Structure formats: structure tokens, C-alpha cells
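User: I'm curious whether this sequence folds into something compact or stays loose and floppy. Could you predict its structure so I can see for myself?
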Amino acid sequence: MTDAISDDAAWAAVLRRDRAFDGRFVTGVLTTGIYCRPSCAARHPARGNVRFFADGSGARAAGLRACKRCLPDDVGRDEAAVLAAIDEIRQAEDAPSLTALAELTGYSPTHFQRVFKRSIGLSPAAYARALREERARDALSGGGDVTGAIYEAGYGSASRFYENTKGLLGMTASAWANGGAGVTIHWAVVDTSMGAMLVAATDKGVCRLSFNEDASELARRFPKAELVEGGAAFEKLLAEVVASVEAPGDFAHIPLDVKGTAFQEACWKALREIPAGETRTYAEIAAAAGNPTAVRAAGSANARNNVAVLIPCHRVIRTGGDLGGYAYGLDIKRELLKREAK
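Assistant: Here's the prediction. I'll summarize afterward.
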């Protein structure tokens, strides 16, 4: 089909309706005479009836017509509209209304809402809120004035910031800006079959899991937090974490207290949704996080994961099947994948 995408890779993308491949090729169905986006929601045709084309013009030259359901020829226009809307949202002091964004892009409000959410994974309003939260977190992590950071991020008042981010930031904004000031973090280093493992948790959940580190790493990350080794309540959580690492599988029941940008947290959520025994590529994680083009940013989000195993970044591999990298060494990554494959 093309030099970049093999027919087998294209068919796999069609079967999982992968939006990350929209615009990279179209699927021609010879029996119906139509061509579709890879993500088309229509019933899958038989593999023998499918031919792949680099774009719509190639499919039309073969006598096929565009699907009226997924409108494959609109991919470029949709992408341009979404990018224009994102630029408008980022530059505006107040979040633009859906009507204003629709007028800007030439779509009806209802249709543009669908186009934007299909591409990004969020509605325009939710994207604008996530952007403000991301700006606030970035400003707060810089250690500056909390109130100033809140207003600079676009919140009209401090109360509105706390209302919108309640339950999302884990630590309070002040603690986050001041290296964990006022927060108690319990920790322990335990021996596992994969080496020494550091586990640390606030009262909200695990905030650090790493291999071959000690409390000095916690002190560097949270210089003003109260670090307490062990603790009765922590012991139960620690036992659950160790059991999950020794027999990796479903970690959803273990609470986490992690911090990142909106996109990083979307990537971490996508990682936690990968079933044990399966892997995903960086491109697939970027698409699941709502931005198919942000493959490099997805890799960065992987690298900034503070909670190994429980946020299973070891389940991400390169497109060609290579394991890629791992913060704690490829031997541990191979072992985790080996155990999950059983």
C-alpha cells in the first residue's frame, strides 16, 4: 500500500478502529465500492474484500466512492479545524464558546463538538478546563506564589480553582508548590525477586514506586514533606503493592497519588487500561490520550511516570516490536512482561 504502513499493519488498525491512522490511508471495500477511514464504525468487511490506498484519490481512481458515514475525505479539513480551535483556546483569555469555535471553523456547533471530541478525546470546554489545570500545575510546580499562579492560569478566583481541581491534584495546591510541605509520606524499601523496591504513599495513595532507589530520592522530590518509614496503615498497602509486583496483573484496586500535566495524566490512564499480557505502542498511547500526533510527548509521559508497575509503562513498546527503553533497565521490563504473559 505505502512504504510506511504494511497491509498487515493497516488491517490491524482497521480491526481496532484506530483513529491514529485516520488520514494515513483509506480502506477500500471492493464488494460495496466504498472507501473508509480506518476508524469507521461500520461493520468490518471480510479481509479478502479489502484493498488499502494511500489516500482518497487513489481509491477514487480505482472506482470507489467515499463512505457517507465516516467521510474519509474530510480528515484533513477536520484536523485543520481542530488545530485552529486549539490555537484559539490557547490564546484566548476566556474559554471561547462552542458557537464561536464552530463559526471560526465553518462547522455547525453540534458537528464540531463531535469532530473535536473524536480527535482529542475531550469536548472543547473540557479541553479548555484541562488546559487551565495544566497551566496551574506547571506554575505551581515552579515554586512561585500560589495565588498568582492560579490567576495566571486563567482562573477568575482561587475558589474556582479549588472547586475545579478538587480531588484531582492529590496534594493541596500549596503543598504541591512547596515540595510537599504539610504532607506526610510513608515509605519503605523492600526486597523483591527483581531487586530492592522503594514504595512511598500519601494518605491518598502510592506516590512513588521505583527499583534500586532509597529515601534520598523521596527527599529530592518532596524536600519539605514529612518522610516516615513504615507505619501500621501503610503496611497493608505495602503488602498489596508487593504482591502486585511479584505477580503483575490488575492493579486498579491500588490507589495512586500522582501529578502531571493533563496530557501526561491521560497517558497514565491509558497505560492503566492496557490488559495484563498485552502491549501498546507509543503511537497507540498518544491516540488513547486524545492526541494521535503527540507520539514524542507520549514517550515523555512514559519517562515521567513516578509509579512503576502500577502505572505499567513497561507495557509500551516501539512500533516495530522492539522493547524500547525502561528507567530501571530492560531486564526488569522483560521479566515483568514475561510474568504477565503467563
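Summary: The first strand starts at residue 26 and ends at 29. DSSP finds 15 helices and ten strands in the chain.
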